[in-house]
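Quick board copy: two proteins, each given as sequence then tokens.
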Amino acid sequence: MSLIRTASPADVPAILGMIHDLAVYEKEPHAVVNTGEMLHARLFGDNPQVYAHVVDSPVAGGPIVGFALWFLNYSTWEGTHGIHLEDLYVRPEARGGGHGKALLRTLARIAVERGYARVEWSVLDWNEPSINFYKSIGAEPMDGWHVYRLDGGALGTLGARAANTAEAASTAGAGA
């Protein structure tokens, strides 16, 4: 049986280590720029907007064996929040023990208790073990939808254009 609990500040190094392990699994080992300080600030700072639950080791005093990191989203159609699961990871040696299902069950319980409309996440199209697991719990793919991302140079360019447009509008209004 999995012991799921809300992450504590002491869990940050283990969570960050598993984020790195997940990046290796997803064939992006150099993509993680997150640090322990950054993760701590997002989870436990003055205004946390990101949340995590962990799976304690079945061995007393052992390292945590999995985590779910999530944040709230909002459905304009439903008029309520949902949970976006950013990462779900269980260490390879602990897989098959029901830990992933227990983490998802915890998020589903939170969603139901708070009146949220959904729990959703993305999965790489080649990740058949995870896809099969998600389908086994009743999750369905969102056919017809594609995930888009704006980052790096494109994000900076578009953001600079918005800043220049806002500055121009502010300057134009100042002379009126």
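And the next:
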Amino acid sequence: MSNEPPTPPANLPTEIVNTLNEATPEHLRDVASYAEALAEHKEREARLEEEVDDADVKERPDDLPDDVPAKATITIKEINDNRYYYWQWREGDSVTSKYKGPVNPDE
């Protein structure tokens, strides 16, 4: 291990580098843990957004419920071997779902 401090990535903003340089080892470990968890969360959100964008739209009725925006699409989710329709739409960085009903009305 070198006696020299590590070189920060070139694309890291100076303010962040300065803040990290002033942090205690304990805080740096907490920041590393948080940064890893946050990166995983953002990657998961991006994947979910892609899945919603690529989801098969099986039906698009004109009579949307009042609390479902016009941009919503209908997707099918399988839960415990049963298939259900859900409205899905984006609200900022998250995807919101609202139950519509079973795919097979007899279920």
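Board note added afterward: The mean pLDDT is 84.
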